[in-house]
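Action item from last week, closing it out:
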Amino acid sequence: MIADVAFTAVVLAGERSSPATDPLASAAGVASKVLVPIAGVAVIQRVIEAIEGCDRINRRMLVGPAAATLATEPSLGARIESGKWTWIAPTESPAASASAALDAIGTDGHILLTTADHAFLTPEMLHQFCTAALSTDADFAVGFVRRRDVLATFPNTRRTGWRFSDDTYCGCNLFAVLRPAGHSVTVFWRHVEKQRKRPWRIMRMLGAGLFLRYVAGRLSLADALSELSRRTQCRIAPVLLAQPEAAVDVDSIEDWHLVNETWARLRG
């Protein structure tokens, strides 16, 4: 039964660039971008607490941050030493780190993937995503939010939008590996991740026909995922979330200010 299925949660907490040169970490005065404070609490800590509060999750893994960063955040080290979380070192990119985590976990069971900069993550959001992902009966599920909903709530934010014929969507950094075939998606992810902010380039990688349909506004989200499913030989399904904040991460100084302003408004 869907209600009884539990997940292993994987949090990608590596760095795209050196913490010493990362502008966000420097602006916040912290050792790593994942330690940037959101209303006084490190963003990775907010993600960890959301996962620990979700009744769908029974195992937890951190991929990163680097050992030097862990040494500056005793609460993270304590969780790992207690066995509550497993830690593995990050690799050269988020996709490679995700692949390393899947290899470490194996193909038995369901896996939730998210990132350490997901500032508004909640247990309820995670529960909704996991339950909806299971209901798709797919091998791999991807979370989306309608871009118009994101802009209605955060009018000053700049979010990458995937403009399909049925609507424009933003990604949520929420993924579910539901069957062994879903592991193959990380291979494609590693191939395209450098173009993550340029959806049209990713579509071009999927072939001229699909690219032209996308540019012309005649490609639906379902059609795009159907083609991607064919390429990766696994069934990929979308999960549409109702919470626009699911699409907001802390990837820049601008994001950091936006999220802190939002938290201040919510608490006020």
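Closing note: The chain is about 40% helix and 20% strand.
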